[in-house]
C-alpha cells in the first residue's frame, strides 16, 4: 500500500473529542489534488468517478486531523478525516462520536432528542387522517404502507386499541410508502386525496387496500379506488384530479404531504412498517395489543 494509507469505513473514537480546538473560520490548506489522486488509486469505488472533491474541511476535535466530506459525483458524501501531515485519510461511517459525556449529560441529551422528535412528528402529523378526539391525552402515530402485509395484520390491533381507549387515545395514520412496493405510493396519494374531502372516505380506502392487497397493481389501484368511492360523500371529479393530474396544485400538495410524512418518519428512526410512536416515543417491538396498551396507559398516567 502507498504511503497515503486509506482506512475505509472506520469509526474513530477518541478521548480527546471534547478537548480539541474549535473550528477555524477558513478552510485549512491541503494539497487536494494529491489527496484526491491517492484516493482514486486506493478506493475502487471512486476510481472512475466523474467528479471528486473535498468539502467543508475544518479542524477536527481529534488531535492531528482535519475533518470534512468527500463528495463523489456531486451527490454522495462520505465523512473523511485527513492527518495534518497528509500521510493518512480515514473514511468514516459517520461523524466522530462524542463518548465523553457524563450520565447526567447523556440523560439531558436523550431528553433533548425526544423533545425534538416529538416536535418533528407533531408538525408532520398536522392534517393527517386520525381516529379519536383531538384533545386525547395520548397520541399514537402509525407509520404504515398500504402494500405491507404486516401493516394489514396490524389493522385489527389498531382497531382494538381505538375501541379500548375511545377517549384517551388519538391514532394518526402516517404515510410511509416503501420504494420496494410499487403501488403503495399511488395508493397513499389516492387515500390522502380522499382525506382532503372526508376522513370517512380515507378510512374506506384504508380498509379496502389492506383487505385486498393481492389484487392491486400500479395501474389499477387508482381506478379501483374510484369504484370503491362511488358511494362516498365526496366530489369524485375533484378527487380524480387530485389523485391523477400530476400538474394540478392539489396533486402536488398531497404528494408534498406524503413525502413530508415519509421524511419525518426517516428522521424519527423509522426503518420499516408498521412503526408506532406514543406521544413522540418510538415503541420498540410493538407486536401485540398488550405491548402498545402498556405504553398508552403509561403515557396517560394510568
Automatic annotation (TrEMBL):
TM segment ranges: none
Pfam families referenced in this protein's UniProt entry, alphabetically: Thioredoxin_4
InterPro entries registered for this protein in UniProt: Thiol:disulfide_interchange, Thioredoxin-like_fold, Thioredoxin-like_sf, Thioredoxin_domain
SUPFAM superfamilies, per the entry: Thioredoxin-like (SSF52833)
Official protein name in the record: Thioredoxin domain-containing protein
Signal peptide: 1-20
The keyword Signal is annotated on this UniProt entry: yes
Origin: domain of life: Bacteria
Thioredoxin domain mapped to chain residues: 97-301
UniProt entry keywords in alphabetical sequence: Signal
Gene3D superfamilies according to UniProt: Glutaredoxin
Amino acid at each position: 500500500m502507498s504511503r497515503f494509507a486509506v482506512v475505509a469505513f472506520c469509526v474513530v473514537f477518541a478521548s480527546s473529542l471534547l478537548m480539541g480546538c474549535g473550528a477555524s473560520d477558513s478552510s485549512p490548506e491541503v494539497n487536494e489534488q494529491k489527496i484526491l489522486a491517492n484516493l482514486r488509486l486506493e478506493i475502487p469505488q471512486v476510481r472512475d468517478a466523474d467528479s471528486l472533491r473535498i468539502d467543508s474541511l475544518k479542524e477536527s476535535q481529534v488531535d492531528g486531523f482535519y475533518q470534512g466530506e468527500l463528495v463523489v459525483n456531486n451527490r454522495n458524501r462520505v465523512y473523511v478525516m485527513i492527518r495534518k501531515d497528509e500521510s493518512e485519510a480515514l473514511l468514516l461511517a459517520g461523524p466522530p462520536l462524542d463518548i465523553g459525556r457524563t450520565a447526567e449529560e447523556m440523560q439531558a441529551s436523550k431528553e433533548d432528542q425526544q423533545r425534538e422528535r416529538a416536535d418533528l412528528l407533531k408538525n408532520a402529523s398536522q392534517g393527517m387522517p386520525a381516529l379519536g378526539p383531538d384533545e386525547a391525552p395520548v397520541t399514537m402515530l402509525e407509520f404504515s404502507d398500504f402494500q405491507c402485509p404486516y401493516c394489514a395484520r396490524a389493522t385489527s390491533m389498531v382497531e382494538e386499541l381505538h375501541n379500548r381507549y375511545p377517549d384517551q387515545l388519538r391514532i394518526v395514520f402516517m404515510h410511509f410508502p416503501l420504494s420496494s412496493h410499487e403501488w403503495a405510493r399511488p395508493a397513499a396519494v389516492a387515500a390522502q386525496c380522499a382525506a382532503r374531502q372526508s376522513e370517512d372516505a380515507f378510512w374506506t380506502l384504508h380498509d379496502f387496500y389492506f383487505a385486498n392487497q393481492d389484487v392491486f397493481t400500479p395501474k389499477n389501484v387508482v381506478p379501483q379506488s374510484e369504484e370503491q368511492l362511488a358511494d362516498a360523500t365526496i366530489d369524485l371529479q375533484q378527487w380524480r384530479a387530485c389523485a391523477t393530474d400530476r400538474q394540478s396544485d392539489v396533486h402536488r400538495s398531497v404528494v408534498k404531504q406524503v413525502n413530508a410524512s415519509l421524511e419525518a418518519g426517516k428522521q424519527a428512526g423509522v426503518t420499516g412498517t408498521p412503526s408506532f410512536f406514543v406521544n413522540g416515543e418510538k415503541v420498540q417491538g410493538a407486536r401485540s395489543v398488550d405491548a402498545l396498551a402498556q405504553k398508552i396507559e403509561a403515557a396517560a398516567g394510568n
